[in-house]
Amino acid sequence: MLQPNHKTLSRLHNINKLLESIYKQPLQLSDILKNDGFEDAEIALLRNEHLDQYLSVLLGRLKLVVGNFTKNRHYDIFVSRFGLNDMPIPTLEELAGSYNVSRERVRQLEKTALKRLHYVKAKSSIETTVSNVAREILMLPPKEEKILTLQIMAETLAVCRLDATNAVPEWALKGSFFSMTRTSDELSVVCFQSLVPDGVNCQGEWRGLKVLGPLDFTLTGILSSLATPLAQAGISIFAISTFDTDYLLIKSSDLFEVVNVLTNEGFMFLTD
Known about the structure:
Layout: H1 6-23, H2 29-35, H3 40-49, H4 51-69, H5 72-81, H6 92-99, H7 103-116, H8 120-138, E1 149-162, E2 179-182, E3 187-192, E4 202-211, H9 222-232, E5 238-241, E6 246-251, H10 255-264, E7 268-271
Parallel strand pairs: 1-7
Antiparallel strand pairs: 1-3, 1-4, 2-3, 4-6, 5-6
Helix pairs in contact: 1-4, 4-8, 5-7, 6-7
């Protein structure tokens, strides 16, 4: 096993500090690799035999990721403050003097850059970079990326609330898509809006997005990858899960913005 030198330990510290700042919780490179399916033996080999090479390459790649999500001055200050340029980390006073700004302005620029890296797409790019560099160093085959496709359902939907003791309404069963949930408090019905009789307590003007499946039960984070960027954009959702896949209901008035947001997150769209 190769003993890491001071330079290697400094790189590791800086990268872990970057991850903790972005994810707002303690997070290490090994956590990302485990979540991406790396075996313990592969992580140990990377740590014990290839750590210096791995971190050296990774620093350069992470700089590119940061550059994709930040502006020029934000980028320069952020890279310096987190040691991504592989140089000693300057103090606030040194950076303020270099850019002829106040220390508070340096803090603001760093904070703005960090905020941009909190987005789901930025985190995904970081995680992909961490894993891809590891595969290159260990000469593992690249992981096949699965791009999720969403189908925009043609019919406008309604979400209805009936009393818990009500029978299942026959009018809801006439469409090709419906979903019902009974609890001790209510009978919730999702169906085509055109089938809902007058006087039923419901909210209409919902559009459905179907995640094309089937999805394996071992897959995690599907709904989160959809809901998080939409929440950040201030868009409310109503989610339904089935054995095969997930459905996302969004207001008809939000459809155009939803497509834009999720397309930017890497999702593809089909129409019904």
